[in-house]
């Protein structure tokens, strides 16, 4: 069996879960053709991401001419199919913020993807995120390519479901995957009742072997790690404001911000304005080994996000036997259990977050270790990459055996 992974920008440092999923599928005997529209924009510091980039075929790197030739060949070979697909792309573009022109570009990309799928004997296409990549897979199917499925993560898909034609993408897919029960509930809002059976939950996975022997908790004052892109939805600015309150009574508490992004200058300015230069460290993007080292040096992970799907960094911290202080949003409460594997607070409230951090600073080491051990057990039971990829592989096989369908245009 051969599956094409249709992706937008890949690999990205924050999308290592896709790489792990692909590699787990390959270990189970499924051949994977990686078709990304473009490379990721962030520098790849992890050797695993660098190796994955070398195995990925980039559609837009081929240049404009191969896409136009693929468009022309499809138009000549099956003009009626091509015209219906073009009309469909225009209709999608009219309701989308991306517009008609962008969807005609997606159509050209889809012609190339469909052609490569035929040449490689691909049985099924799978996309991650219900945005650009799924639009390309949808149009490739409309052009006569294989059926498709896609995984939604949130929050982007749930922020603009109409503009993304999310319902159309679900209804025409062989199946649609959410990474949490919360995510599945959001897909159910836009899917026809007749296709609800095609909505599935497959968790993102971690590789337990990478977390075989968790490091003991460090001694000394509370040290927190926060991991993610520096963008508004991740809530780092609220975390800086909370830290400004915390250090008034707990001056030794330290926060490590792991990541980078468009908001870095704003965060640096806020850190300087609050006089937190000795309490907050920004590391930039780190390799997976670097992230694990920072988790090992920390007592807990803090995740102050305003919007999420179900964050991979929460899973990785729990696998490292670190409890998690997170916001009560999306799928996070399905994994982080207050008083058992960590703490949950409302999103966006710096004072409540500060109070939680101050309380965390007083937790005895034995209790912290117990919470971390429970967190590790929970995530290993629910998020083993091989087990979750096995679920996905079964869905691929069922779809290719005709048990999942999608309507024709």
Automatic annotation (TrEMBL):
* Pfam families listed in its UniProt record: Glyco_trans_1_4, Glyco_transf_4
Q: Which residues form the Glycosyltransferase subfamily 4-like N-terminal domain?
A: 89-210
- The protein in question is named Glycosyltransferase
């Amino acid at each position: 069996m051969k599956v094409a992974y249709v992706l937008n920008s890949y690999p990205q440092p924050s999308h290592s879960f896709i790489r792990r999923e692909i590699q787990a599928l390959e270990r189970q005997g499924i051949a994977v053709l990686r078709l990304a529209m473009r490379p990721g924009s962030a520098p790849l510091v992890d050797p695993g991401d660098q190796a994955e980039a070398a195995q990925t075929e980039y559609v837009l790197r081929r240049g404009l001419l191969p896409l136009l030739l693929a468009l022309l060949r499809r138009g000549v070979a099956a003009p009626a199919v091509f015209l219906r697909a073009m009309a469909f792309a225009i209709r999608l573009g009219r309701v989308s913020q991306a517009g008609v022109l962008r969807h005609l570009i997606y159509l050209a990309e889809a012609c190339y993807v469909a052609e490569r799928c035929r040449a490689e004997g691909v049985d099924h296409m799978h996309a991650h995120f219900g945005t650009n990549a799924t639009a390309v897979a949808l149009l490739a199917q409309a052009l006569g390519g294989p059926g498709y499925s896609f995984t939604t993560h949130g929050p982007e898909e749930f922020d603009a479901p109409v503009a993304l034609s999310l319902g159309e993408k679900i209804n025409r897919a062989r199946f649609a995957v959410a990474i949490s029960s919360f995510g599945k509930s959001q897909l159910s809002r836009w899917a026809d009742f007749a296709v609800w059976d095609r909505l599935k939950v497959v968790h993102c996975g971690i590789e337990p072997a990478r977390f075989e022997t968790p490091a003991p908790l460090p001694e000394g004052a509370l040290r927190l790690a926060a991991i993610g892109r520096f963008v508004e939805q991740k809530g780092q600015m609220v975390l800086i404001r909370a830290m400004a309150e915390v250090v008034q009574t707990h001056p030794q508490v330290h926060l490590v911000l792991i990541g980078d992004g468009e908001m870095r200058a704003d965060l640096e300015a806020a850190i300087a304005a609050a006089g937190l230069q000795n309490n907050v460290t920004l590391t930039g993007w780190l390799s997976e080994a670097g992230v694990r080292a920072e988790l090992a040096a920390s007592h807990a992970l803090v995740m102050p996000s305003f919007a999420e799907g179900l964050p991979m960094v929460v899973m990785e911290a729990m696998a490292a036997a670190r409890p998690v202080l997170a916001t009560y949003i999306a799928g996070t409460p399905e994994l982080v259990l207050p008083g058992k594997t960590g703490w949950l607070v409302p999103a966006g409230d710096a004072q409540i977050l500060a109070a939680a951090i101050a309380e965390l600073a007083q937790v005895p080491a034995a209790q912290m270790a117990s919470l971390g051990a429970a967190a590790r057990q929970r995530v290993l039971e629910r998020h083993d990459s091989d087990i979750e990829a096995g679920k996905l592989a079964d869905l691929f096989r069922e779809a290719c055996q005709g048990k999942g369908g999608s309507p024709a245009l």
